[in-house]
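Weekly structure sync, notes
Attendees: PL (lead), two postdocs, one rotation student
Agenda item 3: pending single-chain targets
PL asked that the sequence for the first pending target be pasted directly into the notes so everyone works from the same version. It is reproduced below exactly as submitted, 465 residues in total.
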Amino acid sequence: MECRKLTYFPLPALGEPIKYLLVYSNLDFEDIKIPLMTWMEVKNDFPFGQLPIYEENGKVVNQSVAIMRYLGKKCKLNGNNDWEDLEIDAIADTIKDLINKLIGGHYTKSASQQKLLQESILNDTLPFYMKKLDAVAKENNGHMACKRLTWVDFYVAGALNYFFSFPFIKKDLWEENPHLKAVRENVLMLPSIKDFRQKNPEDQKAIMDWFQFSGKPTLPYSQGYTVVYNFSSSVSRIILRVNVQIKMTSIKVRYFDIPARGEPIRLLLVYGGEDFENDKVDVRKWPEIKQTLTFGQVPVYEENGHIINQTTAIIRYLGRKYKLGGNTEWESLEIDSVADNYIDFQQKIVQWHYIKSANKKKECREVLVNETIPFYLERMEKIAKENGGHLALKRLTWADFFFAGMIDYFSWMADLDLLKNYPSLKAVKENVLNLPMIKKWYENNPVNMEVSKFILEFTGKCTED
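Predicted structure, written out during the meeting:
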């Protein structure tokens, strides 16, 4: 008999869609709830200090979206082919982006910074995202992808319901977006979910009490960086639905001429022996190019006339295509989990890099260098050592390409050799970059240090005292 455990707080939020998927699949599980006020005492007992945690037959993983994807496949709520899986992943990552922005507005502890963030969210972020998400739901007949029920619908119904309730929002986003509301209702009216909710009603008073406690600014501006939840205004991606004329090649990657988010995609295509158009976006023309993209984001991946974004979703798709994924659903979950933890690490560095106050940036660097970076890299080093110079499964997977393609750029961004004291992680990078086809690629396509330096200096420049 399989043993399953889900550990989360006594709130819906990120744990709820996982519960819904377990209930829908008729899978028994133990629902473990960690009291909110004791979390800091036990935080370090969990992988990467995060919840929810999912356990199955003694194996433990974190990262909520990765867990949902795994359970979605178990109950046949995934795509019917790799491209459909990519569409589902892309919209899930978009929802995660929106949630992170809402979290940033609620949990920021500086009163002045919180006010600015919340105004930006209400005036810009929410109108932007809600219009697009509601249009996606309309196009898919009350679902978020594939015109049918998939696991990403459970993400909408289980998680957005909570985050749309943040007190600063002060309006009913569901009523303003009827097609997105239909996605939620299509999940909540499923007999098994309806029965589960009746037997396990949300404690609305406890939720409101937590909102009031957790959303109260308590720190002066100089300490505003010490936020429990991650927030990065520079990361904002969504599925693109644009019809274009195919030119020259059937595969095209559009990104800046830097080894950041586009690089793992390029390296996977090289590994797969694909001919592709490497469309390098001119940073000087970016403002006008940005307006031509549905969500103003790159990288963008095109295959046989189909266009999509969301970096991790694209990398996962190519990883499966080139047999660099898991051989079982659990192995795929392991890869997804470590990749999502790597994203969390990247965003901490991005968040520091974009601070505009020189004094605040200097102060926050101590936390970044002495606490944040060691916290993540020590855990990832242990994983890489256990897996013989890989990030999962003791063999080459797409997670290794994800890591190797971007780690140097984030070292430059942090102004620190991130791999200096981590030999196993260095081996992950070298195991990818020393592949014959990758070495040949870089001989003919060397990293453009001039553009990389310009972008890093421009984006990291402090403009406030």
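Discussion points:
- The domain at 329-433+445-459 is CATH 1.20.1050.10 (Glutathione S-transferase Yfyf (Class Pi); Chain A, domain 2).
- The chain has four domains: 4-74, 82-223, 251-320, 329-433+445-459.
Action: rotation student to compare against the earlier draft before next sync.
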